[in-house]
Specification:
Layout: E1 5-17, E2 23-36, H1 43-52, E3 60-64, E4 75-77, H2 81-93, E5 97-103, E6 111-114, E7 126-128, E8 132-136, E9 142-147, H3 165-180
Parallel strand pairs: 1-5
Antiparallel strand pairs: 1-2, 3-4, 3-5, 6-9, 7-8, 8-9
Length: 182
């Protein structure tokens, strides 16, 4: 493999069946990544490019072997570097381009809506709904909507019983001291 490839990400859509029960990717956007070196491209880089589009996670990532198509065995799940290597080898032998499809949650985008009346009672009001939080911005008096997001599991404290990091560190030192006595 010596030439560069183009990786096309299909995102913000979803896998579905059409009226003939054929598998299709409905809606969404395409993002092109040109000049990808297939010899150095990795699964970690693929995930980082996806996160660079503003997403936090995905359910599945597939590359499409266009010779077999959606309804044959053309969708190949990407679960590691070996799958990325196979994808790159296929792309080099097929016009130096490959389509990658993501199955992921789509968060509601932030929307701004102008208020009809400018009543100071509504300023800094925050409403909580099932899907989004809404607040009125104080200066331009617009409604700002944001999707509710769940916290990252990586942001949980080390020791849930500890009140702060110092307490967690002291607990860890105590456990190490206990182990040294054995």
């Amino acid at each position: 493999m010596s030439s560069y490839i183009t990786v096309v990400y299909h995102h913000m859509g979803k896998m579905a069946r059409d009226s003939n029960m054929n598998l299709v990717y409905e809606g969404g956007e395409k993002t092109f990544f040109d000049f990808v070196n297939p010899e150095k491209f990795s699964w970690v880089q693929m995930k980082d490019l996806f996160k660079g589009l503003g997403y936090r996670e995905y359910n599945y990532m597939y590359w499409l072997d266009e010779d077999l198509g959606f309804n044959g065995d053309g969708l190949n799940m990407i679960t590691g570097d070996l799958a990325v290597l196979r994808m790159c080898e296929w792309a080099v032998s097929h016009d130096n381009s490959v389509n990658v499809y993501f199955d992921h949650k789509v968060d509601k985008a932030v929307e701004f809506v102008d208020l009809v009346e400018e009543d100071d009672d509504h300023v800094n009001t925050q409403l909580q709904t099932n899907h989004a939080s809404t607040q009125v911005t104080p200066k331009k008096k617009r409604i700002k909507m944001r999707a509710n997001r769940t916290g990252s599991p990586m942001r949980k404290p080390i020791n849930r019983k500890a009140k702060n990091l110092g307490q967690a560190f002291e607990d860890l030192l105590d456990k190490l001291a206990e182990l040294e006595h054995y």
